[in-house]
Write a structure and sequence with these properties.
mainly alpha, two-stranded antiparallel sheet, globular, binds 3-hydroxybutanoyl-coenzyme A
Length: 337
């Protein structure tokens, strides 16, 4: 039902008989786990889906710097400042790897930025929530980077070579990010009563937005079926969400914090069969669709900050281009000398 509320161009999957010979040969390569490289033939829909997903992922990395960079000057110790600064810089690097991977598909970086700034391209819903306390920074590392890893580890096996290779490095760094967040939470949860309350409050506010990061339920996911057939996505949204809950609940227990979900319960029968995972409450999907449609708590602030940075950086980009043109002009003269 909700899928109709999201403006997408997801269409059904073609059967083998409906495919052209080229499409069939391409699908056979995907099914055989071959990697597709930039100059090889690919269906237009495969290219388009990759550009959409990789550029949205890149935008998420860049926009994701904002709620954290906001805390660099307020981090409680010099060590915490240095760690947070390094993490925020890593996220810029992730954005760059991903923009480069998307460029190999024939879209320019300027076009991708234009799509972000005009609101046509999405970025992860999670970054439209505010970071109100230092415990929020711990929670972002623990839950947000934790959810990102859950999604991105399988993407190291995605069918498009440049995307899969970018993911390998990104996942290594995200793993460090998740641990630094958990470490902040360990200190706060075992600190003073006020610190423990801050940690619980952060978990209360970020739990459901973190669950939303995996996208709508499978029934409402317009792209999953085709993206999984093309191995652009490896797991379903609900499958990843379940794995995330199963991994994170014991971590919350270790911290002595309570996941804000009355329905949370381990689901296994007395023979240890059952689902073998937690039952949990769904996030508020109306809130999710409002946030990804531009109506979340911080959408205007986040996009405004990106547009301002782009506009204020124009002189620098122009300088770089002028310098590159000057170097290119000099080269023939140097070659002739
Ligand atoms: N936030 C914003 N939009 C979302 C979303 C989310 N959490 N989940 C889904 N959507 C959008 C989709 O983009 C799609 O809209 P579109 O057609 O306009 O693009 C629509 O909702 C329908 O959802 P689908 O399930 O059909 O979409 P996908 O198949 O693309 O699945 C996804 C969504 C699981 C997020 C998938 O795109 C994906 O795996 N992307 C790669 C990973 C990624 O982008 N991660 C960003 C996380 S943040 C991060 O990594 C930063 C780090 O520093 C923490």
């Amino acid at each position: 039902m909700y899928a109709q509320m999201v403006k997408t161009d997801g269409t059904g999957i073609k059967s083998s008989e409906q495919m052209t010979p080229e499409e069939r040969a391409f699908q056979e390569r995907i099914d055989a786990d071959s990697r597709i490289e930039p100059k090889e033939w690919m269906p237009a829909g495969y290219r388009k889906t990759l550009i959409r997903q990789i550029s949205q992922h890149a935008h998420s990395e860049i926009v994701g710097q904002l709620p954290e960079s906001n805390w660099v000057t307020r981090a409680p110790t010099l060590e915490r400042k240095a760690i947070l600064l390094a993490k925020v810089q890593d996220e810029a690097g992730h954005g760059l790897y991903l923009y480069c991977a998307a460029e190999t598909l024939g879209i320019s970086r300027d076009e991708m930025f234009e799509q972000l700034h005009s609101g046509r391209a999405k970025y992860s819903s999670i970054f439209n929530y505010p970071t109100l306390s230092w415990a929020d920074i711990g929670t972002v590392g623990w839950l947000v980077d934790g959810a990102a890893i859950m999604n991105q580890v399988p993407l190291q096996r995605t069918s498009y070579g440049p995307y899969a290779r970018a993911m390998v490095r990104i996942c290594k760094e995200e793993s460090f990010h998740q641990r630094q967040g958990f470490h902040i939470m360990m200190q706060m949860a075992k600190g003073t009563e006020a610190q423990r309350r801050m940690a619980q409050d952060a978990l209360d506010r970020f739990w459901y937005p973190a669950l939303m990061m995996f996208g709508p339920s499978d029934a409402d996911s317009v792209h999953s079926a085709q993206s999984m057939a093309w191995k652009i996505k490896i797991d379903t949204n609900d499958g990843l969400r379940q794995k995330f809950v199963d991994q994170t609940v014991p971590q919350a227990e270790y911290l002595g914090l309570t996941v804000p979900d009355d329905k949370l319960a381990w689901n296994a029968d007395k023979f240890g069969e059952g689902k073998g995972g937690y039952d949990f409450s769904e996030p508020d999907w109306d809130e999710f669709f409002a946030v990804i449609s531009g109506d979340g708590p911080c959408n205007a602030e986040r996009l405004g900050a990106r547009v301002k940075a782009w506009e204020e950086g124009a002189w620098y980009r122009e300088g770089l281009m002028a310098n590159a043109a000057k170097q290119a002009d000099r080269q023939p003269a140097q070659a002739a000398a």
